Amino acid sequence: MDEKNVVIVTGGAMGIGRAIADRFARDGSAVVIADVSGASEAAAEISATGAAAIGVFCDISDPASCNEMVAEALKAFGQIDTLVNNAGLYSTLKLTEFTDISPEEWQRVLNVNVMGQAFVTAAVLPAMKAQGAGVIVNMSSGTPFKGVPYLLHYVASKGAINAMTKALAKELGADGIRVNGVAPGFTMSDGVKANPDQITKLQEISQKARVIARDQLPEDVVGAVAFLASQDSAFMTGQTLVVDGGAYFH
Fold first, then answer.
1. Rounded distance, CA 84 to CA 118, Å?
2. Which residue in 191, 216, 204, 238 sits closest to 87, CA to CA?
3. What's the maximum distance between 2 C-alpha atoms anywhere in the chain?
């Protein structure tokens, strides 16, 4: 296995995912941007800095698309060392009373936020198992820890990710694969900024709940992800780090 670290970041074309991809590129990793749009453009911008990067279309709710993305990553770089399961639905979701969330909307969120992470993880596992090593970082949310209302489908989906992180850590430990999670608070990402309704209703509430009373930015999340992907956390697995400025304490 080559010494170069190869990282897949789903949803890496913008927002938190792009900030994560930029950090890994700065640290010398080869980066695979997997997204439904903008992946090639984001990879080109990263490549222009001298880093190794490719952009690949990936619909994480489609297992075939996940497998094709992983095949492209292996074709380009020959290995996959780290997967950051970042892609998911959030910023476009409307604050809605539990009883008014339609079955179709429930299914849409679960298909992407839960099954999507499962499908991407399943796609990378053969390569990681063959290497005898790998790191998976699942992006969760602070919402299931705090019980945020009016986004029950989203909160449930991220609660499932927290549970999956623990279970996968148990299942994959013998293969040399570590599985951890990061749970950001309400973050002023590109997607959130494009949906003023979310900002109006959640920004002030989030700031008041924090010990560090300012907006959370995508850059505030990347250090935790980089740490969990590094040898500095080599004896950690099954953990979810809450990064929310002190809004929630374990």
1. 12
2. 191
3. 52
What tokens does 233 get?
Answer: 């956390």
Closest CA to 158 of 171, 142, 172, 169: 142
d(CA 96, CA 90): 13
More confident residue, 217 or 181: 181
Parallel, antiparallel, or unpaired for β 30-35 and 240-243? unpaired
Kindly tell me the burial class for residue 164, based on how many C-beta atoms sit within 10 Å of its own C-beta (0-12, 13-18, 19 or more): buried
| 223/203 Cα distance (integer angstroms) | 22
**Three-state secondary structure string covering 118-187:** HHHHHHHHHHHHHHCCEEEEEECCCHHHHCCCCCHHHHHHHHHHHHHHHHHHHHHHHHCEEEEEEEECCE
42 and 21 Cβ atoms separated by less than 8 Å: yes
End-to-end CA distance of the chain: 38
Residue 154 falls in the annotated catalytic set: yes
Beta strands 240-243; 6-10: pairing state: unpaired
Say how far apart CA 215 and CA 244 lie, in whole Å. 10
Rg for the chain, CA atoms, rounded: 17
Residue 137 phi/psi, 5-degree rounding, is: -120, 115
Confidence of residue 214 (pLDDT cuts 50, 70, 90): confident
Model pLDDT, residue 183: 96
Q: Which residue type is seen at 231?
A: Q
Rounded Cα gap, residues 63 and 112, in angstroms: 11
3-state class of 94 per DSSP? coil
For each of the domains in the chain, give its residue range(s) and CATH number, in order of start.
Answer: 6-241 (3.40.50.720)
